[in-house]
Amino acid sequence: MRRRTVSAGSLEEILQATEPAPAPDGASATPAAAPAAGEEHRLRTEFEFELPRGYVDEAGTVHRHGSMRLATARDELRPQIDLRVKENPAYLSVVLLSQVITRLGAITDVHAGVVERMYATDVAFLQDFYRRVNSEGHTRAAVTCPHCEGGFEVDLSGGRLGES
Prior knowledge:
30% of the residues lie in helices and 20% in strands. The protein is an alpha+beta fold. It has a three-stranded antiparallel sheet. The chain has a two-stranded antiparallel sheet with strand order 4-5. The longest helix has 17 residues, at 120-136. The radius of gyration is 23 Å and the shape is globular. It starts with 10 loop residues before the first helix and ends in a 9-residue tail after the last strand.
């Protein structure tokens, strides 16, 4: 297989070269399924969450609300070369979570040391949250009422369970 290298002088040239051809008879080139002018469908890349217990920092402040971004391929590959993960494969989730959590309360520098000091219930919650966001694309969970056996969904990203 031969590789071909193509270079363009500027971004303007690339945009012009990839611009769709005008539709004949003055018809709109916009597909029928395209959103209306005011509607934009953006990919949601960051998800808010609330920890069941909360992270307690050195000053004793409890941090419960945070946000997690979608993971990239690099995020999932980087822990594989981390020495801590090579020594203890269970450490993979700590490293991975520390890369994708963008904020935890007032803390914006979430590193592996922060995740290490979280309660196990919070780490388990974040692992499930990570899986839902990155594998299933949403933060909803199907649950069943223990009293009436009725099924419904809850959104794991907002509020505490049972609250409206």
